Amino acid sequence: MMEIERKYLIRHLPEDLDSYPHDHISQAYVCTSPVIRIRQKNEDYILTVKSEGLLAREEVEMPLSRESFSHLATKTDGIIIEKTRYKIPESHGYLIELDVFHGAYEGFIMAEIEFPDIEAANSYKAPDWFGEDVTMDSRFHNSSLSQRTPEEVKDFLSHITKS
Q: What sign results for the dihedral spanned by CA atoms 4, 28, 24, 156?
């Protein structure tokens, strides 16, 4: 499946955030090139393989058992990414996936929106509570976030809050 998405930093959170459906996610990376990710989403376990790319890339997901997830978790590198993902319907008929990070990235907030095609992605006008479009900046891929040292995370977060 082709994944076509844009990523944004967030100026401020929407009102009534807790009224939207949300999932608790923990994910880690077995490999970052190509991306091989394991994820626990609530009580589900998923293995994902993604091709290279920024706006559009291939993505394949497969279910994992809890045992397989636990085994693969011992093979991962870097930081475990922890976040709450809110699913917010958007006026153009798209779904905003708003990630509020916890753990090492506590306080970091980013949104992703998936599109049916590149034309729709390129013509999208973000709501006013969105900040900078970071789609083309690979530093904002979760796989990149997972590879930072604690000092690099601190430096990254301090630069985000200044912009």
A: negative
Q: Tokens at residue 154, please?
A: 């601190």
Domains along the chain? 2-162 (2.40.320.10)
Q: Counting runs of H as helices and runs of E as strands, what totals does the chain give?
A: 4, 9
- Catalytic residue of the set 29, 45, 86, 105: 29
Render each residue's pLDDT in the chain as its tens digit; 163 residues: 888 999 999 999 998 999 999 999 999 999 998 999 999 999 999 999 999 888 899 999 999 999 999 999 999 999 999 999 999 999 889 999 999 999 999 999 999 999 999 999 999 999 999 999 999 999 999 999 999 999 999 999 998 866 5
Q: Which residues contact 7 (CB under 8 A, 6 or more apart)?
A: 110, 111, 112, 133, 134, 135, 140
Clarify whether 29 is annotated catalytic. Answer: yes
Q: How many residues does the chain have?
A: 163
Assessment of whether the complete model's pTM goes beyond 0.70: yes
